[in-house]
Amino acid sequence: MFLGESKKIIGNIVRFTYIRNPNSVFGLHIGGPLISTILTGVAFIFVIYLFTTGKHRLFLTGISFIIGGALGNLADRFFYMEVVDFVDIGIKEYRWPTFNVADSFVTIGIILVIIYYWVTEVRYANSTSNSV
After folding, report:
1. What is the mean pLDDT of residues 59-84?
2. Per-residue model confidence as pLDDT tens digits over 5-63
């Protein structure tokens, strides 16, 4: 595929569109490629720290997904100073920003970590309300 080319996968709802993203997530401009690479690296180190302190399987699974996705994007940024995005979802002119598989892993990981914290908070709230 050439840069900007689109191929329909599921009608016009799901397409593969080849773009290169020198910016941060979803093409947000946060200081250019070098700053994006540095911020991704710092976030990656923080997530590694969370992984080393976690104990619950759901939390560790979520963090593992985040680490895997971050590594994929970080490798692209390190070697090419940009990330290849290609998953293009939407209806007609209403489209989500184009993303890649690594972004999906980060997103799923964040959702799993949120679910873990939500379940933990519900358990904690129930245990404290029952003990009073």
Report:
1. 89
2. 999 999 999 999 999 988 766 566 666 667 777 877 788 888 899 889 888 999 999 99
Q: Which DSSP symbol is given to 12?
A: T
Strands lying side by side in the sheet with 83-91: 6-10, 14-21, 83-91, 94-95
Catalytic residue numbers read 85, 103
User: 16 with 2: CB under 8 angstroms?
Assistant: no
pLDDT value of residue 114 = 95
Give SS3 for 6: strand
Paired tokens of 112: 């799993």
Exposure string over 62-78, b if 16+ CB within 10 A, otherwise e: bbbbbbebbebbbebbe
> Where do the structural domains in the chain lie, given as residue ranges?
6-131
Q: How far from 86 is each of 3, 28, 56, 96, 102, CA to CA, in Å?
A: 10, 16, 33, 12, 11
